[in-house]
Amino acid sequence: MNPTADKAPGAANAGGYRGRLAPSPTGYLHLGHVRTFDLARRRAEEKGGVLILRNDDLDSSRCKPAFVEAMYDDLHWLGFAWSEGPDVGGNYGPYDQSRRFRLYREAWYQLLRDGWAYPCRCSRKDVLQNLGAPHEGEDEPVYPGTCRPESPEFVDRPDAVQGVCWRFRVPEGESVEFVDNHLGRRAFVAGRDFGDFVIWRRDGLPSYHLAAVVDDAAMRITEVVRGADLLLSTARQLLLFRALGLAAPGFYHCSLVRDEQGNRLAKRNGGMGLRALREKRYEAAAILSLAREESG
Asked: Known catalytic residues?
């Protein structure tokens, strides 16, 4: 079953192509960011569309002004330009996630009212212990349903419930299918490949999944370009699009840039970061060439 059969991925593109760059200023940009951002820019240009910059700065404890400043500096140095964003405005702002909290809260409440969410007291450590086996990979472990009620329960004042996160109740056994614009058809089974996932954190912030879905829909994004490590995230987010009654964008998942040991790049990989490469006198064109994959 396709969870977005009524509003299939890409159904939001009636007004023309709208792509986006969505860096999170929790560190400096690296080659992996350059690959996805360059692809997003090129696909927008090929389709005669527009590119939007969104500053995913929700986590105030990790997002620093210095990283925001470096983000702008690096993107401009590489030659990136955008039609809408925090610095240029646009019709779908604000373009800083930290200023869009009301929209996330409304979506959270809607999911609660419709029986899609429930409170959970389990930490990641608790989940791993309950699974009884080590977790491999960087994706979140499949939640075993410890706190999941047998039937949906309405919570009148969720803000008054302390010390919990809120999880999305996935329809177990349902196949989540979509056609990726690069990798082709993909299918994941809810409850097997991924479990009930966090939509509202115990620190009072929306999860990445919820914020991305709300913003991509509100900003009329028609295609999301990102790394292949987020394929499972796409499956989760398609369920959120459906539950919220929103049209989903299309998706393009590119291969990851990896270091010499074959590990995917992260912000802790300083040697492959833009700051380090610029200090080594790399030209912008050379960095773009390093980041690009031959298959496009």
From this structure: 267
- Mean pLDDT in the chain? 87
Q: Strand 175-180 vs strand 184-189: parallel, antiparallel, or unpaired?
A: antiparallel
In terms of Cβ atoms closer than 10 Å to its own Cβ (0-12, 13-18, 19+), residue 109 is: middle
* Burial (Cβ within 10 Å: 0-12, 13-18, ≥19) of residue 294: exposed
Instruction: Supply 236's token pair.
Output: 């989760």
CA gap 238, 3 in Å, rounded? 7
φ/ψ (deg, to 5) at 169: -85, 105
Enter the pTM of the model.
0.88
CA dist., res. 124 & res. 216, Å (int): 27
Complete domains list, the chain, with CATH: 13-291 (3.40.50.620)
CA distance 205 to 201: 5
Residue-level pLDDT at 124: 79
The per-residue pLDDT for 270 is: 52
Please tell me the distance from the alpha carbon of residue 270 to that of residue 21, in angstroms, as a whole number: 21
Radius of gyration of the chain (CA): 19
Give tens-digit pLDDT for 60-81.
889 999 999 999 999 999 999 9
Contacts of 254 (CB under 8 A, 6+ apart): 35, 36, 39, 182, 225, 226, 227, 228, 293
Give 101-118 pLDDT, tens digit per residue.
Answer: 999 999 999 999 999 999
Per-residue burial over 151-181, b if 16 or more Cβ lie within 10 Å, else e, is eeeebeebeeeeebbbbbbbeeeeebbbebb
Bond into 249 cis (ω within 30): no
200 neighbors 207 (Cβ within 8 angstroms): yes
